[in-house]
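[step 3/7] inverse_fold.run input=structure_tokens len=455
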């Protein structure tokens, strides 16, 4: 038996019904609508952006987080869901709290540094997952914590000379010099002095005289070292410091993102990709969202000429699309710019599929380059129920109908078949909506789709 759709999804459906019909194309922030996500950690690898997040459980009243999630994109608006490649259960010595981590690649292996609560001590510790693929699965690299001092939020950075550093901490700020194996360190655990010159001045909290709170994100650009962090509490804002070396001395440089967005925490990750700079953060923007039900979002920005970072404001529009999506190659159904009602799950044949689809749910795929025209749509579907219809619409969920594919029952939610239908009017670059219609209950699952060109 499949579980009923979550309260979260029901709220999202309700919002979609109120806001979406006949309106303009929806904004694309937050990035993920199928679950609550938090603590973004982007990674650029082989021309693709991988986005690692935490997962706030529906209805949380604390940071109730059991697993991490992974997504990827080449255009910053259509994100492919890779599910959960690592969870608290990956670490046999951990008991809870899949909090903010970061993934780095070295010598073909991907290392995921994460804070979790250690079973034996009950304290926060930093574990390391490892995989040969950016989408996992990840296994415990050590079988024990790499470091354990009760503090959180690891950020890892490999300098141009090959020396890697692991930073972490709340309320303090620590680092170790990682060895090239990325799972051991030399030189002991070092504490970065939290001076007001380095991290700004906080008033009203004698125990925390500087603005540094948590969530460091350390990187180098044009020879300057940046430490972007969550400042003050609560609510947090995002600030940064710079230094001439990875170990300081740090100079406070001011606010990047002011307190905004109905989550009392924020958490930043910054990358350069395809000539642009991108700032990832989280807020409480989805229906039911708040401090413990957060969502990851992204904005594009440009560094000032002197290397300083401009102030960035949360938007619902998000980053502009970087390129277009090719409908003539196979696209995973879980590649989504915006969705309403649907969820994702592991597909029996590997990867993910879209499921829990009900009448009126839809998926938006942004900037689909149809060129001179598409003739046929083909999709891989499964249904343990009676099936339904997949409407292909342009511009909005109620936009012009380009074609309809009928889906029959296949005898199982993972019993897949391929169906095709003719389409018309799909030329140029359009936002494509896959809209699901049919009777009551769950209709069918979708694994992938692809168009064929006219002529
Ligand atoms: O997500 C749990 C904690 O909330 C993170 O570790 C912090 O950075 C804050 O975002």
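[step 3/7] decode complete -> sequence:
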């Amino acid at each position: 038996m499949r579980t009923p759709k979550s309260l979260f999804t029901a709220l999202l459906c309700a919002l979609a019904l109120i806001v979406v019909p006949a309106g303009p194309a929806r904004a694309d922030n937050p990035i993920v609508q199928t679950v609550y996500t938090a603590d973004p950690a982007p990674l650029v690898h082989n021309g693709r952006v991988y986005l690692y997040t935490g997962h706030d459980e529906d209805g949380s009243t604390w940071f109730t987080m059991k697993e991490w999630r992974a997504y990827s994109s080449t255009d910053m608006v259509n994100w492919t869901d890779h599910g959960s490649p690592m969870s608290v259960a990956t670490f046999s010595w951990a008991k809870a709290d899949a909090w903010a981590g970061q993934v780095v690649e070295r010598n073909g292996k991907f290392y995921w540094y994460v804070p979790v609560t250690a079973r034996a001590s009950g304290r926060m510790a930093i574990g390391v997952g490892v995989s040969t693929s950016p989408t996992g699965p990840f296994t415990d690299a050590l079988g024990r914590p790499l470091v354990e001092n009760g503090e959180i939020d690891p950020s890892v950075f490999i300098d141009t000379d090959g020396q890697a550093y692991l930073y972490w901490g709340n309320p303090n700020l620590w680092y170790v010099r990682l060895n090239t194996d990325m799972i051991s360190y030399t030189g002991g655990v070092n504490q970065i002095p939290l001076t007001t010159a380095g991290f700004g001045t906080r008033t009203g909290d004698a125990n925390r005289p500087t603005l540094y709170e948590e969530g460091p994100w350390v990187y180098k650009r044009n020879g300057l070292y940046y430490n972007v962090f969550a400042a003050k509490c609560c609510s947090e804002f995002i600030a940064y410091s710079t230094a001439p070396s990875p170990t300081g001395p740090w100079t406070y440089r001011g606010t990047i993102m002011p307190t905004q967005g109905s989550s009392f925490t924020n958490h930043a990750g910054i990358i350069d990709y395809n000539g642009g700079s991108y700032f990832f953060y989280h807020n409480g923007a989805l229906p039911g969202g708040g401090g413990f039900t957060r969502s990851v979002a992204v904005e594009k920005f440009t560094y000032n000429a002197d290397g300083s970072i401009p102030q960035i404001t949360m938007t619902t529009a998000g980053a502009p699309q970087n390129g277009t999506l090719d409908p003539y190659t196979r696209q995973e159904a879980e590649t989504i710019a915006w969705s309403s009602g649907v969820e994702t799950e592991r597909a029996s044949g590997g990867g993910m599929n879209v499921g829990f689809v009900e009448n009126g749910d839809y998926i938006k795929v942004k900037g689909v380059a149809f060129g001179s025209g598409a003739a046929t749509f083909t999709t891989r579907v499964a249904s343990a129920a009676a099936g339904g219809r997949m409407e292909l619409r342009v511009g909005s969920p109620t936009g012009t109908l380009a074609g309809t594919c009928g889906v029959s029952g296949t005898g199982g939610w993972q019993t897949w078949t391929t169906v095709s239908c003719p389409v018309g009017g799909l030329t140029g670059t359009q936002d494509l909506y896959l809209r699901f219609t049919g009777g009551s209950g769950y209709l069918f699952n979708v694994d992938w789709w692809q168009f064929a060109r006219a002529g």
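[step 4/7] annotate
The CA atoms of residues 100 and 153 lie 5 Å apart.
Helices lie at 7-19, 196-199.
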